[in-house]
Amino acid sequence: IYSLKHGVIIFLLCHYRKAVNYYDLLGVKSDASLDEIKNAFFDKSKKLHPDSDPSNPTLHSQFVELNEAYRVLSKDPSRKAYDFKIHHPYSGSQSWEYTHDVSVHTQAQEHIRYWEQFRQSQSQEMTLEEQQRRSRRNFRLVAYCMVAMVLSVGAHFIFFRKLEEVHNNFMDEKDRAITEIYNEAKERARLNGFRKQTEILRQKHAEFLGKYKISNEGEDK
């Protein structure tokens, strides 16, 4: 009994699915314009979208049927084939499906051939334009690199010249200070004489030894 009921339910559902009229599903007349079909689809899709009521599992199947109805009725070849099926229901669904598939395939091939010619010509033009653009970009890149190298070399040259100048000035000042100290010491030695200069040196040596001895004693402590 359960299997019989289950089979009857499946049969009724399949019969209902086959008997669904796409115009009735969208809520428009059979002579409705494309804008009317589009507006009706947008209004229905907002109400039947599965996200509008996640707790309702039937919304998904209804939304799929709604999309299928809009897909068929929004294109002139498939709509004509569907209208032929409605007005000639005993001609069989296979003939409509075959006509629908053939029309869609033919239309797709025509679209491909139509746009292929533009795509090929555009790709050739874009290729030449791209090559010119790439050449200009590479030329600018090389020019920027050359300018950067020249500026870098110039900056290093100026930096090292300045560093050399500072070093030479420092060494000249140091030599001048040493020469001045030497000349002053030499002049004092000449004025003081040999004996007096010797006494001065002994006194400074004694002071140095005393200072050194005191510092050593402090470290030992």
Automatic annotation (TrEMBL):
- Key words of the record: Membrane, Transmembrane, Transmembrane helix
Domain J spans what residues? 21-86
Pfam families the record matches: DnaJ
Task: Fetch the Gene3D superfamilies from UniProt.
Answer: DnaJ domain
Keyword set includes Repeat? no
Residues that span the membrane, as ranges = 141-160
Q: Which domain of life is it from?
A: Eukaryota
Protein name, as recorded: DnaJ homolog subfamily C member 4-like
- The primary gene name is LOC114471439
